[in-house]
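Sorry to interrupt, but I need a hand with the structure work. I would like you to pick a protein and set down its sequence and fold. Please put the record directly below this note.
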Amino acid sequence: MKTSAFFFALLLGTAAFAADDEKDFKPLFNGKDMTGWHVRKPESHNAWKVEDGVLKNVLAPKEHGVDLVTDAKFRDFTVQYEYMVPDGSNSGFYLRGRHEIQILGDYASGKATKGGNGAIYNFKEPSEFVSKPGNEWQTVEATIVGNKITVILNGKKIHDAVECDKPTGSQLDNDVKEPGALFLQGDHGTVSFRNIRIKELGK
């Protein structure tokens, strides 16, 4: 996707991404059901559901759910997604199932940390704090090539080719050089996702 087109779409406040690059991205969530996904632990409480084109994980306080994992695995790619997280709630989006881009309802804190929204969890804090309030959709474009991660959150580049050669916690496995699934963290708190799309690189 052309960066200028991506930012223009954000400025317009639309949920759609730039149309000129549609052919390069494939949807990971069809907006209707969870085809292409499976829960990480079938025996755990599954709170995931699809409503009005939105993938939701709704948990009561202190209730635990389960992570949602893609059936397919990927190596180098750019992924785009939108999420909404209530104030104080906690989730994450895992690249290759090993590197967590943190999702946290931390707008009130006003501070970028290694455990905060947009962080490469417990590894690298965002270069600036760009979290939105809990009732607003937030937009991410994350790219991983080799062991380098770039993240644009809400139109701001907060990680620029950050080298991360180890898992960041709660990973599916430790094989950081191999292709891996994506997963949405669902065991900590309520979160919603929509418009999850991927473009594989180097093919």
Observations:
- The CA atoms of residues 9 and 17 lie 6 Å apart.
